[in-house]
Amino acid sequence: MARSLKKGPFVDGHLREKVEALNTRNEKKVVKTWSRRSTIVPDMIGHTIAVHNGKKFIPVYVTEQMIGHKLGEFSPTRTFKGHAVKAALERAAGAAAPSAPAAAGGGAPAPKA
């Protein structure tokens, strides 16, 4: 469900204060935050925000196309290691494939008698 337009986008107060302080001083420092729920607003453009993913901080450089999205969208929390079933099928197909061309006559020519 979307947030009411009259309320405006949600940004945690401590994060908003840090970004505003950087804007007033014209600094470009990395801001660490655990606030994955905060919405990216135009004030954040050009800043690098390190978003915590549960294990480490992932640096996110904010661009104009990110406005309206949440910070957590750019800091994945899970590492995808592949589909185990698909990998097993590919290994089985790869093991059968090299022996097939040799049996089909693709190898060395037969000796003449």
Write a concise keyword list for the protein shown above.
alpha+beta; 3 strands; 12% strand; 113 residues
Overall radius of gyration: 27 Å
The number of strands is: 3
- Helix tally equals 3
| Biggest β-sheet strands, sense, barrel | 3 strands, mixed
Percentage of residues in strands: 5-15%
What do these coordinates show?
This protein is 27% helix and 12% strand. By secondary structure, it is α+β, with helices and mostly antiparallel strands. A hairpin with a 4-residue loop joins strand 2 and strand 3. The longest helix has 13 residues, at 13-25. The model has no long low-confidence stretch (mean pLDDT 88).
Can you lay out the helices and strands and say which pair or pack?
Layout: H1 13-25, E1 31-33, E2 48-52, E3 57-61, H2 84-96, H3 99-103
Parallel strand pairs: 1-2
Antiparallel strand pairs: 2-3
